[in-house]
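For anyone still unconvinced, we reproduce a single protein record, the chain in one-letter code, the fold tokenised, and leave readers to judge:
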Amino acid sequence: MTPVFLSIAGSDSSAGAGLQADLKTGFALGCYPLTAVTCVVSEVPGHVADIVPLPPKIVASQIRECLRTFPVAAVKTGMLYSTEILQAAVDELPQGLPLVVDPVMIATAGEPLMLASTLQAYESSLFPRATLITPNLDELAALCRRDETPDTVDELASAAVELSRAYGCAILAKGGHLADETCTDLLVLPDGSVTPFSHARTTGISTHGTGCTLSSAITAFLAKGAALTEAVESALAYTSRAIASSHRWERDLFALNHGR
């Protein structure tokens, strides 16, 4: 039977991030991805033009019907935007399924993708339910209430361990924007163990949707029955290949190649 996972996230009109990236990732990895749309986002790489959130009851209805109808084996959340949408999603989530939370806060271009008031709801309602949280450097600093983002792998580890202890779940701290020759990501488990994953950095490419792609790839591997560490390792390898083989158009416009 084809593994099924559910992505609860926003729609990206340029198809490089959000639900469109989740769909392409899921199909590429041999899964059947379902979607619950939280927001419609008018964006292209480097620019977010408009965001229209859906009514929370519609978000809840999508989740409820998908879970009722399909054998969902794992769930991920991406852009939730508001406290009301987040709570509507949480209220529909069943206990026991692996839950990957990508705390989407800021677009690669710098525009906010979450209302400021939503952070508290993440911390009180969603994070305690999570199997894994996948913050980037900016998100990790915000969640740890730090004024500056981590600059070194040691600082990355310290912040990730702090977050894991706070919520009792695993943290994948993404170090892609650290100023190192190699890219190092850290998986911190609730027992305090830290597993580093390093790979060569791809230069000369600027794209968006890597966080969405990575979190949906992890969810896909979890849906296929992989253990968490194995799922993270396989998803990082997949995402690295997608970056390295990115599509490129004029004006240095890039998009991940999810088919690799």
